[in-house]
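User: Okay, second chain of the day. Same drill as before: sequence in, structure tokens out.
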Amino acid sequence: MRGAGEETGSHTGLEPPAWQQVAREEISQRLADVDFPCLFARKAWRAGSIWFQFCERDRYVAAREALTAYTDMVKTVAIEERLYRPLCLVFRNEEDEQPMDQHAAAWQLLEWLHRYDPQAWPAKVPDETDDPAWSFCFNGVPLFVNISSAAHVQLKSRNLGRCLVLVVNPRENFDVVASAASPHGRTLRARIRSRVESYNQAPAPASLGFHGEPGNREWMQYQLDEPGLEAPACCPFSTQRRRLR
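Assistant: Same drill. Structure tokens below.
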């Protein structure tokens, strides 16, 4: 059900469609690169512990089912055993799709997932995206969502190939492996950001910060900007306390 070569859904034994094979190879090439800056992603790749879900672009239901299964696992497995088990939602490109369309598609997906969230928004998490303590939540689990897109040219670390890829982790994972409250955590994050600058041959985005600290806006770290690819002036996501069904 999980692993670098498996999907979260059932295995049919059939050869995956060509687009999935290409997407998997492109992701593999990047994560196998010793210079890829995210040490956690590389460790998960080497361990074969990444959960994959390949989705037809309009198949939000498949993404929802995968995210539900993933967050159910998060709620039942000790954090030490799942630190390096991210979920990668990989979306097939439409024929007329341009790379610049992918970020908007990602935010639309998050809105849809929130609308059909099986659980209420956690009371402990602010529902205003302008709050430094906000994070996206689904199935009662606060999450961090890395939007990786072919639109990124300078920020190669946010480009996992031609497909839109959402890399999802429980937000609490970062408090364990790189807490802002510990010298070790800050040192580790500084090391990763140095690797980001080296890999991208560009300064790290100013929007990278620590969850909960004044001035930090978590959503700005979901979609990073670069020259020629500006992030939205305000968060495209809005929390609905009373979701439509």
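The chain has one domain: 18-222.

User: Thanks, on to the next one.
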